[in-house]
Amino acid sequence: MLPNTGLAGCTVFITGASRGIGKAIALKAAKDGANIVIAAKTAQPHPKLLGTIYTAAEEIEAVGGKALPCIVDVRDEQQISAAVEKAIKKFGAIHTAAMDMLGGPGIESQCRKVDIIADAAYSIFQKPKSFTGNFVIDENILKEEGIENFDVYAIKPGHPLQPDFFLDEYPEAVSKKVESTGAVPEFKEEKLQLQPKPRSGAVEETFRIVKDSLSDDVVKATQAIYLFELSGEDGGTWFLDLKSKGGNVGYGEPSDQADVVMSMTTDDFVKMFSGKLKPTMAFMSGKLKIKGNMALAIKLEKLMNQMNARL
Questions:
Q1: pTM: predicted TM-score of the whole model, two decimal places
Q2: pLDDT in tens, 242-284
Q3: 212: Cβ–Cβ under 8 A, 6 or more apart, which residues?
Q4: Lowest-pLDDT choice from 100-114, 125-139, 261-275
Q5: Under a CB-based contact definition with an 8 Å cutoff, are residues 214 and 245 in contact?
Q6: What DSSP state is assigned to residue 111?
Q7: C-beta neighbour count of 310 within 10 angstroms
Q8: For 1-107, where are the E strands, in sequence order?
Q9: What's the rounded Cα separation, in Å, for the pair 24 and 21?
Q10: Three-state DSSP state, 260
Q11: What is the dihedral of CA 247, 251, 254, 259, to 10 degrees?
Q12: Taking CA 165 as the corner, what is the angle to CA 159 and CA 170, rounded to the nearest 5 degrees?
């Protein structure tokens, strides 16, 4: 892992630092004696997610840092500005529980420890100001730092990793590794044969393209039924059946119980399937509400990526 070398006296403003990745980054910097602004919403204990801004502050100060817990909603610019002002006054300058909820039981074996993000963030902290604005992937930046053994970050070393659903591409190396273990990749690339048909609404057209893309391979790799509760023009209840032979889509309720229920507006639905709105970002921003098996919900994103060029 990347060794601590010196952030003493620096002030680090970290959102979501009450638990998980955010707290791991904070603890990494705190070991150098850094000043940490814990900007998060959790002030009261959550029934399923451990940690608050105050318990995180205690841990940070226990390892040698200075902590300033601030109740902040990162979507509120005024709250962020107020937290920055507090930090200036105080300092003079400026595997997670959530993943278990998203992925379901057993997801941890496909994940890396939060330490990899902490080390990557620590590397960024030491970059010059000109580095601001870069898009960074944790593994890539750590390779530049000379890290070669990434098994030290794995929850279960040697186990195939769950592809990061914040990234567009399904990494080729991960795909090959999954296949080498005998597992079936989520979806196989294939040419879509679309039948011409006049448009009669963006939602119906989207489902038509989805239907034309279905195959036994897609069904075998997914094994899930999705129900979409759409509001707005052309809205209503639609389903995507990836359990029945060959797959099926339609308006109304599926013949069997849905594994995943997704609720959103018709506009956001079309944007999501056409690649203009990332499913994960839609979920995190509240535009997409999901009930049911979250691991199966994540699987659907691969099919959406295949649709992008057709919509």
A1: 0.44
A2: 999 889 999 999 989 999 999 999 999 988 888 888 887 787 6
A3: 192, 193, 194, 195
A4: 100-114
A5: no
A6: S
A7: 16
A8: 11-15, 35-40, 66-71
A9: 5
A10: strand
A11: 80
A12: 70
